[in-house]
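Friendly challenge for the regulars: who can give me the structure tokens for this chain first? No prize, just bragging rights.
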Amino acid sequence: MPLSFASLAIRPRPPHPDGPVVSRAVRWAAHGAALSLVPSGLWRCAVAVGVPSGFAEGTPLHQSHFPGRTSLYLLALSAFAECLGLLTLGLIRPWGERVPRWVPLLGGRRIPVLAAVVPAALGAAVVTTISVMSACGGWQRSMSAADSPKGVSAWVMTACYAPLLAWGPLLGLVTVAYYRRRRSSRT
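First reply, four minutes later:
Bragging rights claimed.
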């Protein structure tokens, strides 16, 4: 039997006694959202340890400033962004519906649907808006500045940041699926 996107979206994962039933397409979207942050995070980590980024001398991202005080900022930003991306997995996993039992005072309680949906939907809207604005001219203006990377450095940086265009829409898709699944399970 040939595999198609429709068959991925329709066939749910076998039910797990402790977890939600999530289609394969939604699981892929959740993992894709989390993984879309990895290339830009790796690029920032490389800059933080002193790998030449192609920025001109005198700019804050020039290799002469790294490793240094700004390295901690770049590493923390990468870790924070990846943690936000990994929260998307909560929309497809049992810990996104019920607080894990090991959490003091709250362990075992159901998570209200809107407590997960509202921040995820706002995050998807903000990230999509920022990435679309960047794609529609902001990135090109920034990269055409005299002190920005040129040549291979510019291509590498662009390739590392391009997957961020998928983060917002994938998060939005997974959020809608979470909302529908949780609402249908209540009826």
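The longest helix spans residues 113-143. The chain is about 60% helix and 0% strand. Your move, everyone else.
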